[in-house]
Write a structure and sequence with these properties.
By secondary structure, the protein is α+β, with helices and mostly antiparallel strands. It contains two helices and four strands, in the order βαβββα.
């Protein structure tokens, strides 16, 4: 079985994917906030957009590979955060 590819995006590219839901795939970006980095996972693999924030890259990638929790219990970020 082929491993899913996770693509790193710049923050502006991530915003475009979130707004347009194009292209399909698994993505992440890094947002620098004051004294820490936030890793933002974007799962648009099947056209249903899911977004989650993580404190480190390892957890971010595990979530994108469906190794953490269930998508049914993950909440989307507020849209105004990306404007």
């Amino acid at each position: 079985m082929r491993e899913k590819e996770i693509i790193k995006l710049r923050l502006d590219e991530a915003k475009d994917v979130i707004e347009t839901k194009i292209p399909n795939g698994l993505f992440y970006c890094i947002e620098k906030l004051e004294d820490k980095n936030i890793y933002i996972a974007i799962d648009n693999n099947n056209g249903h957009l899911w977004i989650e924030e993580f404190p480190d890259l390892r957890r971010c990638k595990h979530w994108l590979m469906n190794e953490i929790g269930s998508r049914y219990f993950i909440y989307r970020l507020k849209e105004d955060r990306w404007k």
